[in-house]
Amino acid sequence: MTTYSYQPLLPYADYLQAYFSQLGGDIAILGRVAAQFAAGETSPPGMTLLVAAGAAFRSGSVIEVPARVTTTIVAPTGNPRIDRVVINMTTDALVVVQGVEASVPTAPLVPAGHLPLARIALTPGMTAITNTAITDERLNGGAATMQGSGLVGVQTFTTSGIYIPTPGTNSIIVEVLGGGGGGGGTAATGGSTGAASSGGGAGAYARAAFTGNFSNVAVTVGLGGASTPPGANMGNNGGSSSFGTLVVSPGGFGGNPGAAYSGPVIIGATNVTALPSGANIVAAIGGQGAQALVLSPGAVVGGTGAPSYFGGGGFGGGNGSGSSAISPGAGGGGSSSVLNTGARAGGAGANGIVIVYQYS
Fold it and tell me: Is the pTM for the entire model greater than 0.90?
């Protein structure tokens, strides 16, 4: 059962005054939200649109944006056209995106890093744009405009292809990892020699953010260095991965070969990769494949493949072939052979990977 506390009744006139005062305040708040960044005809109507004032929430602050007029819109000449008025999420700049004339026109795409405000139906010879030709496209009446973005989706490329943004994507963060190098191979040994080879190097890693020019970008996933044939053979290098020309991450180097030695001897580690290009958040070189050891004809250790950003490399052979890497971009393991053993193969490096995180 609901209980109530006694409250004295207000006189009717005072009650009405309080009610309408509250109602007026509510309407003022709702009106501000509903009107911000609304696009409409100018007075008198012409070939521009008047975009109302609004507020942008950015970096913890509320920024007041004044009312503005768009650039002049040119009427189509042969067929109808649909244009869009959008606002830049970072600079607050207004942009008119021109569509294509057609008997049945369609609206142009919203550029990355922008939000839609209005769609304009244009006819040949038009000299003034009125409200009847304008369709409001604001999000939540403008209330969501210029606020923080959310994750739209993730696209992962394990093979080369074309990146096509998921609808609603306005900015991306991309990770690009080159392919891992293969481990070195080892020569056959005699009665007084052993052999060991170093592990393959890891691919370079890059992380970058973009707010435009990323649609239909060609994605290349660098292949890992193939398994090295038995014998004192240098491991195969990994291939570079790239996100168009925006980001390029080199592949890892192949492991050093293992000739027959009586020992003790150290077979040096691989070189490191160059830094990726285009990485505006993180740029990391690919690490070295581990050294190999021939302590004596009967005591040999193949080098472990270098770990990548995503995990460990292949194991080095302890009197055996090197194992192939599994983690994207990691290096393959080097092989090793004790005395009186045939030549052995190095493990393959793992393919690189490209991951695109998409934000609204």
Answer: no
